Structures are given as structure tokens and as C-alpha cells.
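Notes from the 1:1 (GR / supervisor)

We went over the backlog. Supervisor wanted to see one worked example end to end before approving the batch request, so GR pasted a single chain during the call. The sequence is below; no edits were made to it. Supervisor asked that the structure be written out right there so they could see what the output format looks like.
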Amino acid sequence: MAVAPGTLLCLFTLLGPFAVNWSLQGILEGHLCTTQAVLREIGQIGIALTTLSIAVNTWGIIMKGWPRSPGLAAIVVLSIWSFSILICTLPLATHKGRPFYGNAKYWCSINASEGLLNAISHSL
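Structure output shown during the call:
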């Protein structure tokens, strides 16, 4: 599957500020770090759930003879990404006393002090 040049340009444009800032100063906790952590978590959870839905859909079509439904597929994709965005931004509103996302040595992710939440998030 080929990736459109516009998609790569958009990706590099979004990720550029992270690389430039951290190559000059190192990883600093703050808005940029939180943004990277949220985008990273949304992507990981979204990709995991999308892979699961593709597997279930493929199994259903091949093994059970389910009819193909583009409308249902659109609803599933929208639901997956809505859930991913909600589950990753919810900690920003609920953890007011301490930052939920922060420096994880090589990139920004869930703070190590979150322990079980970190394991659950990465196991999805």
C-alpha cells in the first residue's frame, strides 16, 4: 500500500516541533510533552482496536458469511477513534493535582508513577 506524499508531509509537519525542540533542549515536561504523549496514546489504542475490528470483520465474512456493510464499517471506525480520543484525554481533566503524562526517558508518555494505568494502557 502506497502512502500519499501529502500524508507524509502532514506527518512530518506535525512531528517536526517535537524533534527540533528536544534535540536542542532534551525532553522537557510541559504542553509539548503532553501533546506528544496524548497523540502517542491515541494512536496506540486506536491502532490496536482497529486491528481487532479488522480481524473480527474478516473472520465474520469468511467463516460466518456476514454481508459486507460499509455503513457499519464507518460507524465502527468512528466509534474506535472517538473512544481512543476520549480515553486518552480524560486523564487530563481528572488528574489535576499531578501530571498524568510526562517524561518517560526517551519520549513522553504516561508517568511512571501511574504504574497500573501505564500497564493497562499499553496492554490494550
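Supervisor's comment: The chain has a mean pLDDT of 77.
Batch request approved.
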